[in-house]
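Name: Efflux RND transporter periplasmic adaptor subunit
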Amino acid sequence: MLAKSLASRSSLLAATGLALMLASCSKEPEKNKQVPQVGFVVVSETSVPVDVELPGRTAPFAQGQVRPQVSGVIQRRLFTEGQLVKKGQALYQIDASLYSAALDQAGANYASAMASAEAAKAKAKRYKPLADSQAVTQQDYTDAAAAARTSAASVAQTRAAMRTAQINMRFTTVPAPITGVIGRSLYTEGALVTANQTDPLAVVSTLDPIYVDIQQSSTDLMQLRRKLEQGGAKPDSRKVTLMLDDGSEYPLSGTLKFAEVTVDSTTGTVTLRAQFPNPDGLLLPGLFVRTRLSEGKQDHVVLVPQGALSRDPRGNATVMVVGAGNKAELRKVTAERTQGDAWVVTAGLKAGDKLITQGLGKARPGQPVRPVPDSTPEKPMAPKKPGAAPASAAK
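Structure predicted for Efflux RND transporter periplasmic adaptor subunit:
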């Protein structure tokens, strides 16, 4: 009986020792567990532009078609294709022989009409005193006065015909309608041209400055204006930047000149026109481009680095901040667009919040963290002293 009691007591002591060892081992990980270090930035409110990207096509600032005003054969072309021409500069010479002869004839008719008018006027002048003294009948004087007026009208007609012949003679030299760069000539020397032909002889375009016609959906335009009003955006000077077809950005910025007051019924779009400087002639008419149009400025927003924002399975945007007691806090925010490499947050953050940007993989909502300024190097764990006995063994 005594042996049985001793065996029972030794079993109880062994069980108690085992329990104490397990308790000390379970406390060991908690003692070695460290609070994770996270990097944070203090956010502040700012203003960002509200931009929209739209397609567009370049159009010349001014364009003039070189057209003949008279018919005839082209004798000479007086310009080099692709060069700058000045307004009024001679571009083509049309055969002027017929128009020169017509001008001579008109001049002769004018001279003849002048002579007849002088004679009729002198006759009417002589008949007047004779009619007063009844040396000639009153009818003779009336006929002489009417002949003088008819001759004066004939002079006016022949003078107009002579001016027309002079104008036609001048039109045999075809001038540039505007100052600009002239394109290829559609007619060569020896070609017959007419005053009412469909095709122009050439086209002159003014390319500096140059227009960009932008197409924007009327629905998008109304939605954008509504968002600007709701989001507190303010009007801007509406600068426009240009992206070329190869993806590069045009170095000079433009300005928005006007927007059409009506919507195109076939496409449902509104045409916006921007003007760009083009001193080097890089932009050519008809070029397809992408434009970035500043629609205004949005105040009281927070810029969040893209790596610091994530989305839950429902698509809601969330960030981690350092909350009370240095505990990580998951916070929902409103972020509908980006600005450069950052999200534009319009709700959910305020100035002074500590946004966690580093160590997000170690932070857990509601758990303590050790916040340090962003980009602070993390201190390594202190190495254990060699030969140190574990806590369980010391016991």
